[in-house]
């Protein structure tokens, strides 16, 4: 991830150096002590010259899992936040970069750290203590939300490609996204992991919801967002198989203060950050902070929404006061298929008579007969365009038991444009590897050698935009 950041921002950094010659600033590395003796490593930017009466407004930037403050510094410098009337602080989260301590995935200890960082900054005489905002991406976005509902008095916040309900994100319908969870765990050096993480990962892989739910609830903000009046800007990815659209859309409904939801091209796999619309996004972020932390009052609608088309490269996007209208269609995948753990059922539709822009969570209904210890069923929806390009649209899975049962599989919430003339394929198996050996969303976890499943007719329900935005 670090290499992607550095390469992706290199050109923008060159631009920043050229523009910054007229905007002097000071940049210093600082160490912020925590109450347990751990030191948090940070970088502080201050505009040159005397602070205004009451101090500079400030923004704290929080990085993603396995990230560092240097990535945030690159972002801050590339998009002109440093030296432009804001104090800016970035810091290495506990267990990251040059900070001490162990990673426990935005638990109470990390939220206490975030509170202490805010307090340290607010105590400076050159900072306006009531005008401190936060920008956080992924792991950092989770920290922003969790610290917000814990009472950290942010003046305004921006979250990017993150979660509000960690259990729903990692174990939707009770089946762990094992490939993603293993990848996240592997990104943390073993020496930096809190010992509790191994037990939680084992419980998640075993489907032990009783152990995982309280752990995830302690790291989730959704249930508490109904009392939040702080201005919140959420930038979620159209196609993000780790933290889907629903993680922000549900929060958008609950928040009581000024709020903005932008669905863009950034995100975890299959998307990236930076993306083609990052310049537009960061301009909107700057406008958001200027409005809610700046010296002058500004007028904005209480709620706003924008959706980037898949081909967006530059320019402006329209914001509306509500999310787009949707409709639903269904596709039948008839047949009866029996297979073992390494087998699959792959069924393909006729060509689509018109383009669709899937928006939300497709669902699969099917009746199965499981035997011999068959314990899960994973569904992967793909589309093959008339040009031969294969798109992995979404995926999901559920635990199963022996016997005949009706299944309802909710796939990941996303926005995907599928051109006219495409064919949809629904692949059912014990893992996402049944669709492709490169699809690591749901791993092929152990199952009894005697396990078998018979899958009958399947029906796919597709939520879509009434009016497509991608052309």
Tell me what you see in this structure.
By secondary structure, the protein is α/β, with parallel strands linked by helices. It has 2 domains: 2-165 and 220-307, Rossmann fold (3-Layer(aba) Sandwich), CATH 3.40.50; 326-465, Galactose-binding domain-like (Jelly Rolls, Sandwich). It has 10 helices and 20 strands. It has helices at 2-19, 69-78, 108-122, 139-149, 166-170, 178-186, 196-205, 209-217, 245-254, 278-293, and strands at residues 25-33, 39-47, 56-62, 87-91, 127-137, 157-160, 232-237, 259-264, 303-307, 326-333, 337-339, 344-351, 356-360, 363-371, 376-384, 390-399, 403-410, 414-418, 423-429, 452-465. It has a 9-stranded mixed beta sheet, with helices on both faces. Strands 10, 11, 14, 17 and 20 form a 5-stranded antiparallel beta sheet that branches. A 4-stranded antiparallel beta sheet has the order 12-19-15-16, with no helix packed on it. The model is unreliable at 1-22 (pLDDT under 50).
Largest beta-sheet details: 9 strands, mixed
Q: Which term fits the overall shape? A: globular
- What is the CATH class designation of the largest domain? Alpha Beta
User: Termini, distance in Å?
Assistant: 31 Å
Approximate helicity band: 10-25%
Number of domains: 2
Number of contiguous helices: 10
Q: In oligomeric terms, what are we looking at?
A: single chain
Series of secondary-structure elements, N-terminal to C-terminal? HEEEHEHEHEHHHHEHEHEEEEEEEEEEEE
Question: What ranges have pLDDT less than 50 throughout 5 or more consecutive residues?
Answer: 1-22
Cα gyration radius (Å): 23 Å
Q: What's the pLDDT, averaged over the residues?
A: 94
CATH topology of the largest domain: Rossmann fold
